[in-house]
């Protein structure tokens, strides 16, 4: 992506609301619901790079169904609903995380907004940038990765910010960053980054047939709270993750990370 926005929306693809059937009650019961959109999303992902999946998430599927699930309302995962899904880098705990994230809207009757904020629009002083560029704290696996959360290895400390030829980039997930372990000056700098990301955040209300493409090195994304009905009409997105061959936008030190034992499955054209 060549802009400081770090995101764009593809619009106008047809969605058959009736034909898709009810919103699944959870990813595990989605089966082949709206399966033609799995194909569409993978075709788009392949045009942008190499689609990836994770052995430890949604049984290794390349396309995920993002729906509210009973019992998960207050988690910091895509299955939540009634809490703010905090802005975050997708799979921030892993060095092999996606470069691009694709979110396709199947259903959004309640106009639930996806939030997005680009690090290239924030304003931080040089001292804060220097602090956040140091590997001080780890980012832990989120609740969607049960096996990774029990990994026995020492969590690697990672940088939140770093500079590339095209501009600043970030690796950020406050819900899974143990900030209580950090010195006070680091926590203060992190809080100022959080406030700046909130200041520049935009709300994107996806409609059926829209595909939001997010640069995962530049933009953090989240979701506003909503009240699920669990009646088959709730918000329903499909998600694909993409690595871009040849992109050099991350610190070399990430190559030494263990990734909490999680292996990526990569689809090569």
TrEMBL record:
Q: Which UniProt keywords apply?
A: Antibiotic biosynthesis, Iron, Oxidoreductase
Q: Which residues form the TauD/TfdA-like domain?
A: 75-240
The protein's name: Oxygenase
Q: Which residues form the signal peptide?
A: none
Per the record, the GO terms for biological process are: antibiotic biosynthetic process
Where are the annotated segments for Disordered?
247-269
Q: Which organism is it from?
A: Streptomyces griseoaurantiacus M045
Q: Which domain of life is it from?
A: Bacteria
Q: Does the keyword Iron apply?
A: yes
Name the Gene3D superfamilies for this protein: Clavaminate synthase-like
One annotated GO molecular function? oxidoreductase activity
Q: What is the lineage of its organism?
A: Bacteria, Bacillati, Actinomycetota, Actinomycetes, Kitasatosporales
Annotated coiled-coil segments of the chain: none
Which Pfam families does UniProt cross-reference here? TauD
Which metal ions or organic cofactors does this protein require, according to UniProt? Fe(2+)
């Amino acid at each position: 992506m060549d802009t400081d926005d770090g995101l764009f929306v593809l619009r106008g693809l047809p969605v058959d609301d009736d034909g898709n059937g009810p919103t699944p009650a959870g990813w595990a019961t989605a089966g082949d619901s709206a399966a033609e959109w799995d194909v569409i999303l993978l075709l788009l992902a392949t045009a942008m790079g190499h689609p990836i999946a994770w052995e430890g998430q949604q049984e290794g599927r390349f396309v995920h169904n993002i729906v509210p699930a009973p019992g998960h309302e207050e988690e910091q995962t895509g299955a939540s609903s009634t809490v703010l899904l905090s802005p975050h880098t997708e799979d921030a705990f892993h060095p092999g995380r996606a470069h691009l994230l694709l979110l396709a809207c199947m259903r959004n009757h309640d106009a639930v907004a996806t939030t997005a904020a680009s690090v290239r629009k924030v304003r931080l002083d040089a001292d804060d940038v220097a602090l956040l560029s140091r590997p001080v704290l780890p980012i832990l696996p989120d609740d969607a990765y049960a096996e990774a959360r029990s990994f026995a290895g020492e969590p690697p400390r990672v940088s939140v910010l770093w500079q590339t030829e095209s501009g600043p980039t970030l690796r950020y997930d406050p819900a899974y960053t143990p900030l209580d372990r950090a010195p006070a000056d680091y926590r203060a700098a992190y809080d100022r980054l959080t406030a700046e990301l909130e200041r520049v955040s935009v709300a994107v209300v996806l409609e059926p047939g829209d595909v939001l493409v997010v640069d995962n090195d530049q933009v953090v994304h989240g979701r506003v709270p909503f009240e699920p009905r669990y009646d088959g009409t709730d918000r329903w997105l499909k998600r694909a993750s993409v690595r871009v061959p040849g992109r050099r936008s991350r610190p070399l030190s990430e190559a030494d990370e263990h990734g909490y034992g999680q292996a990526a499955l990569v689809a090569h054209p």
